[in-house]
Amino acid sequence: MKFIKTLDSKFFHEVIPAKQMGKYAHFITIRVTESYPLFQTDGELNKARVRAGIEHKEPISRLAMFKRKQSTPERLTGRELLRNYKIGDWEKCDYNVDFSKTTPDCILYGFAIGDSGSEKSKVVVDTAYSITPFDDSHFNFTLNAPFENGTMSRQGEVTSRINSQDHILPQVFFPSIVTLKDPTEAGFLYVFNNILRTRHYGAQTTRTGRVRNELVGVIFADGEIISNLLWTQKIYDLMQDKKQINSPDPLNEDDVLAAAKEAITTLMSQEYISHTDFIGASFIPLFSEVKSITSDETRLQEMLSQANTESSTYAQTWVLKSGKKEAKKDTKSNKKTAAVTE
Q1: Under a CB-based contact definition with an 8 Å cutoff, are residues 85 and 301 in contact?
Q2: Where is this region: Disordered (predicted)?
Q3: Residue 6: what pLDDT?
């Protein structure tokens, strides 16, 4: 079933291949914080000491958004849709507990269940870094847990339930490239839709963590492209040269998006791989068509059903079948061992 008319079918596989075939779809994304999210490990915000830009060589500390902080919320968004429309083994599949091994989530994003099998993720996400320095991108808040009457004391007793926590500020920008290996058309739309729909990232997602994903474009290539860090450093150079970074003021989103498009176009012109870029004006028709599919309930269900059919077929051919073979080998091996022991 063909969904996208604005793209050549050469960018996609008819079925999910068992081996890597050298087709890559790269989603060029700017993640924009809209509240006070927490990207932390061991109680502290994640950060890294790196060079500010490619030309601006001074070191700075940047906030870091680790890969699992990005991919987990997005795959949970897809799983939610599959359950909502009752597509695939939605009842059986339990995230990080008991994967069904057949859904688009399991096959595209991968899974590992100890001795029960695993599937390598076809969605590649790397750590993303803030454009602005750490010191200008976070703030320490004092948190408390009041009594029923709304105060911190009751009957002369003052509660000790008070703490402080660093939070990331609103309008902090994280350039991030999400890569899908060997996409089918339905798989491409499935991952695209997850990126567009996901709104919360990081810890305490029910109360904060609001993040919006602005897609700058899509690049199809026969290999992986530049890193998030290099793209971020190029954006920093462009904005710093134009004096658009004025700490501690937040960055202007229009300036960031313009610099992001210019940076990715410049860096891709230096790449050694074959690629087709949909950036800026060339991205608008593709984005409009994808939006028309994902916002139409009937077409969305058709896309999810097609993605599930492809994933289930792949699983039956390569995942579950290989698992049965391994089980038979283990059984034969155990019988031989038992015979020798006897």
Answers
A1: yes
A2: 323-342
A3: 96
Rounded to whole angstroms, how far apart are CA atoms 256 and 208?
23
Q: How far is CA 173 from CA 112, 212, 220, 238, in A?
A: 32, 10, 24, 15
Q: What is the pLDDT of residue 152?
A: 47
Nearest CA to 136 out of 255, 245, 258, 254 is that of 245
Task: Give the helix/strand (H/E) hosting 107.
Answer: helix 104-109
Report d(CA 188, CA 222) in Å as an integer. 15
Average pLDDT over residues 303-313: 97
- What integer pLDDT is reported at residue 91 of this predicted model? 85
**Distance in angstroms (rounded) separating the CA atoms of residues 181 and 274:** 15
Instruction: Give me the residues paired with residue 278 across strands.
Output: 218
> 103: part of which helix (H) or strand (E)?
none
Mean pLDDT taken over the chain: 87
How far from 226 is each of 95, 212, 242, 323, CA to CA, in Å?
Answer: 31, 22, 23, 36
**Interacting residues of 92 by C-beta distance below 8 A, sequence separation 6+:** 98, 100
3-class SS at 116? helix
Tokens standing for residue 136: 């200008």
* Residue 278 to residue 149: CA distance in whole angstroms: 56
Cα separation, 250 vs 169, in Å, equals: 9
Strand partners, 168: 138
Binned at pLDDT 50, 70 and 90, residue 341 comes out as: very low
Distances (CA, A) of 146 to 150, 153, 157, 167: 5, 8, 12, 21
SS3 270: coil
Question: For the chain, what are the domain ranges?
Answer: 9-316
With contact defined as beta carbons under 8 Å apart, do 35 and 318 qualify? no
